[in-house]
Amino acid sequence: YHVYCRPVPIENLVADLYGVVRGLLYLKKSGFVHADIKPENILRGSDHRVKVADFGLSRFVGAMGGQSFLMTQSLVNLQQQTSSQANLGKGSPAFLAPELIAAENAVPTFESDVWALGITAYMLAYGFHPFADN
């Protein structure tokens, strides 16, 4: 999504956000946080299906269900390789939860993904960031 011009029609917004919430819940159940939820990382196909993209900052925080071990292990290996090559960030500054901004050693959580989704939902509904004046 590129929302810096106009809001998304409400009927599309509700369906698209539902798809993103389902994706985030799947990640949580699999033990991952995305850590970079923002409009640009929500892809809407010609079939109107929504996908969450850009898992470059995602991290494994612990499995919460019986998900595929191979998928989980592959992502853990990728995270270990990435973290040894570069410092994993907290996400895009305009979408960071207050606790990630306040504490230098804070790490993204499912709750900070939900915060970023809230900022994203506002931007999709109104076409601008809720704290644009700050």
TrEMBL record:
Signal peptide: none annotated. Residues 1-134 form the Protein kinase domain. Its EC number is 2.7.12.2. InterPro entries: Kinase-like_dom_sf, Prot_kinase_dom. Keywords: ATP-binding, Kinase, Nucleotide-binding, Transferase. It catalyses: L-threonyl-[protein] + ATP = O-phospho-L-threonyl-[protein] + ADP + H(+); L-tyrosyl-[protein] + ATP = O-phospho-L-tyrosyl-[protein] + ADP + H(+); L-seryl-[protein] + ATP = O-phospho-L-seryl-[protein] + ADP + H(+). Belongs to the protein kinase superfamily. STE Ser/Thr protein kinase family. MAP kinase kinase subfamily. This is mitogen-activated protein kinase kinase. It comes from Kipferlia bialata. The lineage of its organism: Eukaryota, Metamonada, Carpediemonas-like organisms, Kipferlia.
